[in-house]
Amino acid sequence: MDLQLYRAHSARMYDYFLGGTTNFAPDREAAGRAMAVFPWARTAARANRAFMHRSTRLLADRGIEQFLDVGTGIPTSPNLHEVAQRVNPRARVVYADNDPIVYAHAQALLHSTPQGRTAYVQADVREPEAILRSAELRDTLDLGRPVALSLVALLHFVPGEDDAHAIVDRLKRAVPAGSALVLSHGTPDFAPAETERAAQVYRAAGTALRMRTREEIARFFDGWRLLDPGLVASHRWRPDAGEDGAGPGGATDAQVSAYAAVAVKP
Q1: pLDDT at position 106, please?
Q2: All domains in the chain, ordered by first residue
């Protein structure tokens, strides 16, 4: 398997921003260039990760026992299944990612509780049918029961020509009423100059990056009921006790530069 360690990859750059160790010189060099023009990249990554933890806990508390996490990224504990299974040990989680190095580390994603189950699918979000028809998903999740679709910090890596909205619509159609959509997405709304320069760094490193406005991101939730507080900057979505709503370390909307929301299928 070609791990493509000679070129930067968005998943490994994200790992670097989170303080992980599964990244290499090209990833760190590209991440450094991104931080030179968008100095809050670490803050934004950590706010996204914290949003994933909070939304997963909420949905597990609400009784959802099945999760499909697309664009998993490098395993950084606590992973989604660890968060969900702390609430409900019976929770079942399927991870999907297209990065070969994520696959190489996927064993870390498979340490389920005895009562629950986890599985990993090597697949690309741009091919949702490959995810939905995979044996790993079919053997792990029951698509006749509610599923939480987790698309955290993923869709800004799907450019317009790949029709991100059609991809999300296909995933939404595959799950029944009571399912949830967990989504965060980078935006130029708060810091347009800085986010555009960061996008240029990613493009120069070979990774397409398409920031979207609040209106464009809101379309992903069409037809589903947004949970309070709706579509907001990711650090403002139901901050944990002790946070003031300004995010970790008092982060601003510009530093986070991402929207997040959770919606439920009626």
Answers
A1: 76
A2: 10-264 (3.40.50.150)
